[in-house]
Amino acid sequence: MTIRTLLNCEETQMTQADQPTRRSFLQSSLAGMLGFTLSEDFLRHAIAAPAPQSKPKNCILLWMDGGPSQLETFDPKPGTRNGGPTQAIQSSIPGVQISEHLPQMAEALQHLNLIRSMVSSEGSHQRAKYLGHTGYNPQPTIQHPSLGAMVSEELGNPDFSLPQFVSINGPSFGPGYLGQEHAPFVVNNATKKIENVQPPKSVDQSRFRSRLALLDRMERRFAGNHSGSKVEDHHETYGQAVRFMNAPEMVTFDLEKEPKSVREAYGETDFGQGCLMARRLIETGVRFVEVTLRGWDTHEDNFGRTTQLCRTLDPGFATLVKELRERDLWDSTLVVWMGEFGRKPEIDSRDGRGHWTRGWNVVLGGGDLPAGREIGRMSPDGAKVLDSPVSIADLYHTLLTGLGINPFTEYMTSLRRPITYVEEKAKGIPQLTKSV
Questions:
Q1: How far apart (Å, rounded) are the C-alpha atoms in residues 29 and 374?
Q2: DSSP letter assigned to residue 194
Q3: Is the separation of the CB atoms in 369 and 432 below 8 Å?
Q4: Domain boundaries of the chain, sorted by first residue
Q5: C or N terminus of the chain, fewer CB within 10 Å?
Q6: What angle do CA 308, 309, 312 make, to 5 degrees?
Q7: Sign of the C-alpha dihedral, residues 375, 376, 380, 383?
C-alpha cells in the first residue's frame, strides 16, 4: 500500500499550508513507492502494537452534504403554503411528526433527540461546511480542527492499528492545528475494497524486506544530518502505515464478512453500506467515523430529489441505530445527523428551495445524552424560530461534553495564539444535559 493512499493526501480539504506536516514530508520523500516501511524490527513492533485497553466514547457523524430540507425530513409543514406535497407521520416521540418518507426513522426517533431550531451564520456551502465541521467560522489566519480530529486527539489510541478518524464516501475536513496524525483516512466508496493494501505481485516478501532495509538506511542517514520533530514525525507516520497494512483489523473494511440480510437492511447504496462500515469500525476500535450522503442542494425539483434521498437515508440511519443498540454500543457512541444548513421555507419557481440558516434540523443521540426530546419550535410557516434557538457553538459544546471532552480545552496555535475547541461564549443545549 502506498503511503499516499494510506493518508489520502490529495483529498483532505483543509490543511495547515504554512507548517511542515507529516503529509507534506511524505509527499517529498518516497511517496510514490509501494510497500515502503521501516526496519524489520520496527515492522515486528508495529504489527504487535497493543490493542486499546479501554472503551472510550465514539462518534459517528452522518453528514448530509448540500443542506437537507427540514420540511421534507424532520419538520414537515403539511397543509401550509410552504409545506409542499410532503405529508407527515407520527414518530415514536409523542406529539412529534416527521416526513412520510422516513418511516423507519419515525420508529427509531424515540432513541434520539430532534433539534428543530438550529441557527447559523454562514449561508455559502464551503463556509457553512467548515463551520459545521469545526464549530468556527472560517478565519484567514488559522485552520481549526474538525470534530473528527478533536475526537482522534482526545479519545484516540495512537497505538491502534487503524486510523482513529475515518471519512466514508469522500473527504472530510482536516486536523488544523492538531497536526496531521489526526487527519481523516478517506474511504471513497464503502462498497469497494480498500486498494493498494498489499504490494503488487512483482514485490514478494524477500523484495519487500530488501526495500524495507533500504528505507531504514536512508532514514538513519537522514536522521544523522537532521534533527527535530519532522524526523520523528516521518518515522512515526511510516510506522502507522506498517501497522495499517498488516493489521488483522483490516478485515473491518470488508463488508462481505457481514450476512447478506444485514447488508440489505442498511440499504444497498453507498450511504447505507457506509453506515454499516461505520458500525464495524466503531466496534473494532476506531473512534470517529463520518459518512456522507450527497445531493441535498435542492434548488430544483426539491420534492422529487428529497424523496429519493430519504429512501436512501431511512434504512441506513435507522438500521445503524438499531444495531448500535443491539450490540451494546449505543451508550458509548454519539450519533449526529446534520448538514451545513437547511432549506428556505418558500418554494421557488423551479420547485426548489434556497439556502436557509434561520431554523433547521439536527438529530443526535447515544452516549450520555438523554433521548426522545424535541428541542426548539418553528412558526407554522417554518420561517421563524419560536423558542430555544441553538447555535453551532452550543451544539459543539454539547457534543464534546457528551463525549467526555472539555469543550474549552486550550491549545496554542503556530501564531502563539491560545484557542479552545469551542468559542468561550458557548453554553451547550440545556435540554440535553444530565441534570435536566
A1: 53
A2: P
A3: yes
A4: 3-51+201-246, 58-191+249-432
A5: C
A6: 95
A7: negative
Stretch (H or E) spanning 110: none
The strand order across the sheet containing 358-366 reads 185-187, 165-168, 288-294, 58-65, 333-339, 358-366, 112-119, 373-375
pLDDT tens-place string over residues 6-52: 334 334 444 333 333 333 333 333 333 333 333 333 333 333 344 44
Exposure string of 140-164, with b = 16+ CB inside 10 Å and e = fewer, is eeebbbbbbbbbbbbbbbeebbbbb
Q: Return the C-alpha cell found at 327.
A: 450490540
Within 8 A by CB and 6+ apart from 106, the residues are 89, 90, 91, 92, 98
Query: Nine-digit cell at 359?
Result: 431554523
- Residues 324 and 334: their CA atoms lie apart, in Å, by 10
The DSSP code for 109 is: G
The DSSP letter of residue 364 is E
- Take residue 289 and report the three cell numbers written for it: 467515523
Class of domain 58-191+249-432 as given by CATH: alpha beta
Beta-carbon count within 10 A of 265 CB? 20
Contacts of 250 (CB under 8 A, 6+ apart): 161, 162, 194, 197, 244
pLDDT in tens, 215-271: 777 777 777 776 665 566 565 566 666 667 677 889 999 999 999 999 999 999 999
Check: CB of residue 278 under 8 Å from CB of residue 82.
no
